[in-house]
Amino acid sequence: NKLSKKHSIIKSIQLTMESLVGSYSIVLLHQDELYAFRDPLGIKPLCIGEISDGNVVASESSAIEIMGGRVIRDVEPGEIVTINDEKILSHIVSNSEDRAFCMFEYVYFARPDAKIDGILTYSVRQRIGSELWKESPLEGDVVVPVPDSGIACALGFSEASNIPYREGLIKNRYLHRSFIQPVNEQRKATINEKLNPIKEIVEGKRVILVDDSIVRGNTSKRIVSRVREAGAKEVHIRVGCPPIISPCFLGIDMPSREEFVAPNRTTEEITKEIGADSVEYISIPGLVKCIGKEEKDLCLGCITEKYPLQIDGEKLRGQATLEEFKV
Predict the structure, then answer these.
(1) Omega of the bond prior to 211 within 30 degrees of 0, cis?
(2) What residue ranges do the domains of the chain occupy?
(3) Residues 6+ apart with CB under 8 A from 312
(4) Domain spanning 2-100: which superfamily?
(5) Residues 144, 199: Cα–Cα separation, whole Å
(6) Are both 2-100 and 103-296 of the same fold?
(7) What is the pLDDT along the chain (327 residues), one digit of tens a residue?
(8) pTM above 0.85?
């Protein structure tokens, strides 16, 4: 409010953006105009669309399409967009070429039908599944996804390996995501209620479970146990995200390092902890290739411990101080 009394609304937003450190996608309504702006690194998504009675801004393209609209384009990193009854205006307020698109949006968080910065999430996840087979092939009888975000990965794995794909775990769609729940007992109860194996699909089979990621390991451990109880001969896990070893400080609610299953453990130790016959993760180069962007343009902090912005006590990947974003 103090800024807006001294400057235009665009200048006020620009000065605010120059003061903020972190990830954000913001929509602001002021009088009869809508303003949308995105952090200079583009960590979180934001896009513009057209619906029958005007324009709309959303964090995912699928939200616009669900309303019967047409996606026009993404809001660029470091851009302020003004929308009124007559036109859409663009104001570029950052001259930095640094980017840090969140890799976890492609792996897990975004809807599979969302396009983020021109890339369809579903296609990324299919490519991840195919890459998992190339990097960590094995013999098996059936590929089973951990729904929902593991479905496209499992399809890609099945197509690449020619091992049949079956939906051997049925999800209760009325429960929340377990890894962001605050209490351990609550998470475990949710996991028990969340997924139910189909005995006829897994009994006597070498089952390959394909999941998007492993955070604490609680979900994976319980799923492996449930699938074994249903009669599986072997249970292997293939994971579409490299080991998560560090928290996200830039927009995804993750636990502390102490709660992660991967830090300071070998793959063999993780396999034993979860109770599977084998666990293999996609590599970081493999993930980057599947997303289709350069590694320097992705935020990989939770899997590398190197962040695109300075965070107290954490490693900086060698770019993007606040001063670099000022025009």
Answers:
(1) no
(2) 2-100, 103-296
(3) none
(4) Aminohydrolase, N-terminal nucleophile (Ntn) domain (3.60.20.10)
(5) 12
(6) no
(7) 555 667 889 999 999 998 888 999 999 998 899 999 999 999 999 999 999 989 999 999 999 999 999 999 999 999 999 999 889 999 988 878 899 999 999 999 999 999 999 999 999 999 999 999 999 999 999 999 999 889 999 999 999 999 999 999 998 876 655 555 555 565 555 556 679 999 999 999 999 999 999 999 999 999 999 999 999 999 999 999 999 999 999 988 887 888 899 999 999 999 999 999 999 999 999 999 999 999 999 999 999 999 999 888 787 776 444 445 444
(8) yes
